[in-house]
Amino acid sequence: MPARWRQWTLMLLSVVAMYWLQPALPIRNLDFYLPLATLGLALGVWAVTATAPFSRQDALALGLTAAVVIGLSATRYLIPELRPTPSRPPATAIVIVIIAVASGFGLPLWRWARGQGRALALALLGLIGVFIQMKTPALTENLAAGLRTWAGQSTDLASVNDLQWLGFSYVAFRLIHLLRDRQSGRLPHLPLREHLTFVIFFPAFTAGPIDRAERFREDWERLPTERLFAAPRVTVGLGRIAVGLFKKFVLADTLALFALNAANAEQLQTSAGAWLLLYAYAFRLYLDFSGYTDIAIGIGILFGVTLPENFDRPYLKNNITAFWQSWHMTLSNWARFYVFSPLSRALLRRKPRPNPDLIVFASHLATMLVIGLWHGVTVNFMIWGAWHGVALFIHKNGATAPAPGTAAWGSIRAARPPGLWRACC
Fold it and tell me: Which residue in the list 364, 375, 388, 395 is annotated as catalytic?
């Protein structure tokens, strides 16, 4: 592949893959419009974070993206086996009108938003609002009913499964990262081509890792000069993919047969069986998630982008702090950077300053609540987040006392469950 085409190829592949990976949905044409909404969010955030004038390269990136979307809609005239979309796309004329209207609003928005702190704040609040809407089951079900009405379909069947927006959780956190870093002045200007590829980079689109723009940029700028098909790179990339496939489709899927779930729980007769199902569930969760991460990292290596690691043997850690420093590390780092640290600094600046233990407790609790609610805005995930936040605070405060070798230390060691912190998650 010619070096000058590599960055363009990655951008266009990511756009196509986003549509190809999106699962089919019951609401008519929604599995086409949701990826289009992802592009809209990404372009909207670029409009308010860009600091350089609109360049010819930006115009070309925008035009090519629109052309790909219109081209995908035109596949509605092909037989189903030849379509890259999960269902028949909407009429091409409708897609063209949507893109034209969005462009008509987008250009004035871009002109107004550049350098506007208020625009960044509004974009951030709007994105958080969309996130809450999509992560709250009751709100999602109401939205599904409204969309079914608009599509002329029965609202009796409306459910949260109608709105399976692939990759949204990861895209939202990448976009929040870009907005917050622009607010703090840390974000360099990203041309539209680089910005769009970073947000929807196809290996990491569905299950992470959550990369950072400054780290991604290092690989992006080296891309034209990299030897993509050098034997060491191909060997490492394919090896990582093979490990991920083995973890996911051999180990995790085998454990899924007897891991803890509602059906298996009803058949339990002994406590030993309950522990077996629980540990099978814990290992299945890890192998499934880390397997996907291995596949994503391996594909990224083949295309010249080294994604960050997400796991570091978390089940071998001997305390909950070490566990969270090695489990879904990119999410933990994101939460520490955008929740824990800012909240801690804000509380430290208060007059009078709160008790240091209260600051640590509030920061841990808020951080883990955000991580919990990232999975879903439900009571269960709030309890899950609060449980881990309290546990992290207790571990931090108990890390220095009592001292090893004392009777109190022995009591704590005896009461602590061995290994597998994740089993309680």
Answer: 375
